[in-house]
Amino acid sequence: MKTVAIAIDGPAGAGKSTIARAIAAKLGYIYVDTGALYRAVGYAVSAAGGDWRDEATVVASLPHIEVSLKHVDGVQRVFVNGEDVSDRIRTPEMSMAASAVSALPPVREFLFHLQQDMAAKNNVVMDGRDIGTVVLPHAEVKIFLSASAEARAERRRLELLEKGQDVPFEDVLADMKKRDYDDSHRAIAPLRQAEDAVAVDTTDLTLQESIDYMLKLVEEKLA
Ligand code: DC
């Protein structure tokens, strides 16, 4: 079966996951959140007592890490060695850990096949940083989603607050800017817009407006 792939890349907090999930639900595709895979690797290293900042430790841990995805009612759950870590990977520390481990070529290689395999077997909406450029260069639709750093930091702050984590705006903004810089300046698969991607800026759009706009765009592209 020929499968269809929609690649959505962009910096943290641009609304990728919420929008990708909505598009996947509408089209009956599987939503793959690839950031969760990098978070899972960071989590696995730290759960085993290792330091995710230490390159040698991370690389040595890889053979002992099994990351897998399951979809329950269209919702992605992430497992590390059989343990459901979906909620535990959503902390500011795991955001930094994911960004750090994602700069290491062996980690990217480790997750590359898992991502390609998901897209080979399913119609997917996949979001991340390098989906349109590296993982699925032949995706039928590519979108590069962004918004100002301030708008993205405020959205992330509200998300964390909803989970009971009250983090000051300035701290969220500083983390966001550091991650933006690190993700776009790393040597391997840096965050950048694919040449054939459509750029969408969500700074002045509500979530619903962003979803409606993107759905229209995707439907036009797939028509
Ligand atoms: O989307 P997110 O915030 O969950 O991503 C966490 C980190 O993982 C992000 O800082 C960069 C990295 N990442 C990546 O390098 N490539 C991807 N395809 C997805 C995420």
Report on this model:
This protein is of the alpha/beta class and about 220 residues long. The chain has nine helices and eight strands. A five-stranded parallel β-sheet has the order 2-6-1-7-8, sandwiched between helices. Strands 3-4-5 form a three-stranded antiparallel β-sheet. β4 (about 75-80) and β5 (about 85) form a beta hairpin. α1 packs across α9, α4 (about 90-100) runs parallel beside α8 (about 170-185) and α7 packs across α8 (about 170-185). It is globular. It starts with a strand and ends with a helix. The relative contact order is 0.21. The mean pLDDT is about 95. 2'-deoxycytidine-5'-monophosphate binds near residues 99, 102 and 183.
Instruction: Give the beta-strand count.
Output: 8
What string gives the helices and strands in order? EHEHHEEEHHEHEHHEH
Radius of gyration, CA atoms, in whole angstroms: 17 Å
Supply the helix-strand structural class.
alpha/beta
Q: What fraction, in percent, of the residue positions are helical?
A: 40-55%
How many helices does DSSP assign? 9
**What's the N-to-C terminus distance?**
19 Å
Kindly report the oligomeric state of this protein: single chain
The bound ligands are: 2'-deoxycytidine-5'-monophosphate
**Fraction of residues in β-strands:** 15-25%
Low-confidence sequence ranges:
none
* Strand arrangement in the largest pleated sheet: 2-6-1-7-8
Mean pLDDT: 94
What is the molecular shape? globular
What does the main sheet amount to? 5 strands, parallel
